[in-house]
Design brief:
heterodimer, A: 276 residues, alpha+beta, 2 domains, two-stranded antiparallel sheet, 8 helices, B: 342 residues, mainly alpha, 3-stranded antiparallel β-sheet, 18 helices, 52% helix
Chain lengths: 276, 342
């Protein structure tokens, strides 16, 4: 193994180190070249709620997939090599399975060991929302009809904006033409979601609905009328209006029955805090 | 750096003990010829079977935990959670810390990150550093099979064997950390076959597997164990803690018959440098940081000269100065007399 002739040894070492340095340089320049060429954004894929700005996220995420495992509706997937340096990082495709917040704890953020998905924003928002309630009822003797947990989780759901729903072409929308909808939820996709006010999750491909005027995106929105409302435009014509409260969870896109979907969630770009 | 090198090679630098007499070899003492002794040994592959079983078990546990939602061992080999305790890949963490120190992110890392980092470091310090490689790493399993395939092709004289300088792995280790610092990306994680393979097994295969197959093919037909020996910085990180680990493969010169069969089966043969005739500098040796504690040498040893053993504390923290200590045979007679007088 060890060459006895030190000259051969040194030559061997030099040769190996030069090839090592060259290959590292190639890898480094490739990484530099592909740095901002993430195709996840162009594809309209979302990061999990609480994810840092793209530039921060890419170094903070260690690609372990713990967020993938904890998500009860399996909304989070890991990117592949064709997404460049985003390889291995989590994304949500609202067209297939949106984040319906039915975990009620934003666990994907809580489980992240490197805080690439930041739980602190949710914690602060939740604490801030319940603080006045605890001040009003100091010993925790809340009135019967008041559940501080619900207040807290609602504030947490609203804490971070990952995207925003938009209706690129109103002509696609059934309500715009005054049409109703009868059939299963979604546009041929399979997914799970918990409708607002209910305790059990439903499978969208098994759920039959019958509406005189299609308002599925409005009724299934986990954030309610802060995020989306159905406006009457003229007689027999309606159009959903996306409000400031929309966080871009993507449930509306998941349940939308038209093909191609009338309501689409576009990821929002956050300001990087570290990798400026 | 040179101090580190001196320290790692402290035993090699001592004066070798004289080679044992033929009559003093273990088979001669038992009254056998070398051939009888050598051929009489049945390799039961005890450690190899245990190791493969454990490796498959731990990777299956990852897969099953996700598939059946068991919450036993979640995540992947880049970072995981074993019944609530976080475990972090040490080189991934190192890259994260390097980038974090540049961008002020270290304070943001969660407590779970630090717990995972220290738990893994302590665990593998106790169990001998690169034990991760042969007992857990899924890529190692395929590479080990690749090594067998390569041995077959060498036997058929399709390819020739060549060894290179393994110190190049330190260049890669520093280089990948430097690249992480420069590009502010976890560059190595995009190329890491351990992570890619682990994620592919757990979350389903992807395009990145092409890279793993490419490395594997290069290991079979190009350079033997190219990735594991010369590149993988995860292994290098583990080898650093393996150097000061209290556990190693213990070699007892007294029981050795100088057959060097152990070096032939060893995955890192340079760690068994002391088994050659006249190479040992002590009566008892331990393998160093590159040893993956795979147990192949223990399985094949006819005289049971090799076993897993605990190093004496002085062996772990042994200093470079120790190498200057005189060998018993070199101590002048009058000094021995002095010692006896005391």
């Amino acid at each position: 193994m060890a060459a006895t002739n030190p000259k051969i040894n040194r030559r061997q070492f030099l040769k190996a180190s030069v090839s090592a340095v060259v290959s590292l340089a190639v890898v480094g320049s490739a990484a530099y070249y592909f740095k901002d060429k993430s195709s996840l954004r162009e594809k309209g894929l979302l990061r999990p709620p609480g994810a840092r700005a793209e530039k921060d996220f890419l170094f903070a995420c260690i690609k372990c997939g713990l967020c993938v495992q904890i998500c009860p509706v399996r909304a989070i997937k890991l990117a592949d090599w064709n997404d460049g340096l985003s390889y291995g990082t989590p994304y949500i495709n609202p067209d297939v399975q949106a984040c319906d917040f039915s975990c009620d704890a934003i666990q994907c953020a809580e489980t992240c060991p490197t805080a690439a998905i930041d739980f602190k924003i949710f914690k602060h928002a939740g604490d801030k929302a319940v603080a006045p309630l605890y001040k009003k009822y100091p010993n925790g003797d809340f009135p019967r009809d008041m559940n501080p947990f619900k207040v807290q989780i609602m504030a947490m759901k609203r804490a971070d904006k990952i995207g925003e729903a938009e209706i690129p072409n109103p002509n696609q929308c059934l309500a715009y033409h005054g049409h109703g909808y009868k059939g299963t939820l979604g546009h041929g996709n399979k997914g799970k979601l918990r409708p607002p006010g209910q305790t059990e999750r439903i499978r969208i491909e098994e759920t039959q609905v019958n509406r005189e005027i299609c308002d599925l995106c409005v009724t299934y929105c986990p954030l309610g009328e802060d995020a989306i409302v159905l406006n009457k435009i003229e007689d027999g014509k309606f159009l959903p209006e996306v409000k400031d409260g929309c966080v871009g969870c993507g449930v509306c896109q998941m349940v939308c029955p038209t093909n191609p979907v009338a309501i689409v969630v576009k990821p929002v770009d956050k300001e990087p805090q570290f990798n400026v | 750096m040179s101090f580190l090198y001196d320290w790692i090679t402290r035993d090699k630098k001592r004066k070798p003990l004289p080679a044992k007499d033929r009559s003093n070899l273990p088979f001669a003492r038992l009254g056998f010829t070398f051939k009888e002794w050598h051929d009489g040994h049945i390799n039961k592959h005890k450690w190899r079977n245990r190791r493969w079983a454990f490796l498959i078990f731990i990777n299956l546990l990852f897969i099953v935990s996700f598939a059946l939602d068991l919450s036993v061992l979640e995540g992947s080999l880049s970072g995981s959670r074993l019944i609530g305790i976080y475990l972090m890949d040490p080189f991934n963490s190192a890259q994260e810390l390097v980038i974090g120190s540049r961008l002020g992110y270290i304070g943001i890392l969660t407590t779970n990150f630090w717990i995972g980092f220290f738990v893994i470091m302590t665990f593998y310090w106790l169990l001998g550093g690169r034990a991760f490689c042969s007992w857990v790493c899924p890529y190692h399993f395929f590479a080990e099979m690749g090594e067998r395939a390569r041995a077959y092709f060498i036997k058929k004289k399709k390819i020739r064997d060549k060894t290179y300088d393994i110190t190049v792995k330190y260049i890669f280790w520093i280089g990948f950390l430097f690249l992480a610092y420069l590009t502010k990306e976890l560059v190595f994680e995009d190329l890491n076959p351990v992570g890619i393979l682990s994620r592919s097994l757990i979350y389903g295969p992807g395009l990145a597997l092409i890279w793993v197959v490419a490395i594997l093919l290069f290991e079979v037909f190009g350079v033997k164990r190219f990735w594991c020996r010369y590149v993988c910085p995860i292994g290098t990180t583990y080898s650093f803690i393996g150097d000061v680990s209290p556990i190693g493969v213990k070699f007892e010169l007294d029981k050795c018959g100088y057959c060097t069969d152990c070096q032939d089966v060893c995955l890192v043969p340079h760690e068994l440098w002391f088994v050659k005739k006249g190479a040992a500098t002590r009566e008892v040796h331990f393998t160093g940081g590159d040893c993956t504690k795979c147990g192949l040498c223990i399985d094949i040893c006819y005289g049971e000269a090799l076993s897993f053993g605990f190093k004496a504390p002085s062996y772990v923290i042994g200093s470079v100065e120790e190498t200057k200590e005189l060998h018993p045979l070199e101590i002048p007679d009058d000094e021995i007399d002095k010692k006896q007088e005391k």
